């Protein structure tokens, strides 16, 4: 997914230290014109930019496609990150410049590695009537951020217990381990809790965790979180307690050790310096007019490529 903001800020992102659970609420971001769907962005925020290596989280739907127009994200570039697509409902076609063409389906993860550079498009299918899901980005560590682009798909089996069920799509949890490769330790899982269900998850105490509430409400490590909230839990505990409200809950559990590197995020790029980001933008803009090959390759299809937004006149702002 592309960041559609017309004036995206550069961000020097570091995980601020915390000893208590933080509740982060989203802001609405439109994906296109007046009829286009909007997304709820919960990461990055001013007070917290990363959870482990997770650096971006958009949450959308359930949207009736006849009203929202569905998702039509034309070819756009990425560097220095991996995209993680997870759907609850609907279907999206993914195409990228590494030659991958795949469907994003509910309960199945698609992970695209941008590395040195890739472009891709995402379009909801004609048969989709309701679209509901999350799009996440993972920052690549310095040693891997120039790696070759790639793509992986995985359909995790459901694991269930008393009052809950889940799917582990990245990392390890509940005795299940995803085979999907990442460049830093990560956790990603969908958990569905029955009304009033209580679940204590065994987690790595070196990880910080984020719990995105998709539906219902849930008490996360003793702190209440409502639908669309993202609860941040700092490292240090080997148990993550989830308690569903009276209507039950569906959540995404994310985690990883504190990233330990400062990153610069602007538009769809993750770099380390102002100069790098400017160079990424220039490389993409050189490809756009004639759809020529270059650093970001060529994504096939009829959609017009998305040009990069203008850079500020001054040096890009930093925020920590």
Automatic annotation (TrEMBL):
UniProt cross-references to Pfam families, sorted A to Z: Pirin (PF02678), Pirin_C (PF05726)
A single GO molecular function term of this UniProt record: metal ion binding
The Pirin N-terminal domain, residue ranges: 38-138
KW Hydrolase (keyword) present: no
Keywords: Iron, Metal-binding
Cofactor: binding details: Binds 1 Fe cation per subunit.
Protein name as it appears in the record: Pirin family protein
Organism of origin: Nocardioides thalensis
């Amino acid at each position: 997914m592309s960041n559609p903001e017309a004036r995206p800020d550069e961000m020097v992102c570091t995980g601020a230290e915390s000893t208590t659970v933080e509740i982060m609420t989203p802001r609405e971001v439109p994906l296109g014109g007046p009829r286009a769907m909007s997304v709820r962005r919960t990461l990055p925020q001013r007070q917290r930019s990363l959870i482990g290596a997770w650096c971006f989280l958009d949450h959308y739907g359930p949207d009736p496609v006849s009203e929202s127009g569905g998702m039509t994200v034309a070819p756009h570039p990425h560097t220095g990150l991996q995209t993680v697509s997870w759907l609850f409902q609907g279907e999206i076609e993914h195409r990228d410049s590494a030659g991958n063409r795949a469907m994003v389906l509910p309960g199945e993860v698609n992970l695209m590695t941008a590395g040195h550079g890739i472009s891709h498009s995402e379009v909801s299918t004609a048969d989709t009537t309701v679209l509901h899901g999350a799009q996440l980005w993972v920052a690549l560590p310095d040693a891997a951020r120039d790696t070759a682009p790639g793509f992986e798909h995985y359909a995790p089996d459901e694991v269930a217990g008393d009052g809950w069920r889940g799917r582990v799509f990245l990392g390890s949890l509940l005795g299940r381990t995803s085979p999907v490769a990442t460049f830093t330790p990560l956790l990603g899982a969908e958990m569905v809790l029955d009304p009033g269900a209580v679940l204590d998850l065994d987690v790595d105490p070196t990880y910080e965790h984020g719990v995105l509430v998709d539906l219902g409400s849930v008490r996360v490590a003793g702190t209440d979180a409502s639908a669309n909230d993202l609860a941040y839990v700092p490292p240090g505990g080997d148990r993550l307690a989830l308690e569903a409200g009276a209507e039950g809950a569906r959540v995404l559990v994310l985690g990883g050790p504190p990233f330990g590197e400062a990153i610069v995020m602007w538009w769809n790029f993750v770099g380390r310096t102002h100069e790098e980001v400017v160079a990424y933008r220039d490389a993409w803009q050189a490809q756009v007019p004639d759809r020529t090959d270059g650093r970001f390759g060529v994504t096939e299809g009829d959609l017009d490529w998305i040009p990069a937004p203008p850079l500020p006149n001054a040096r890009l702002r930093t925020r920590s």
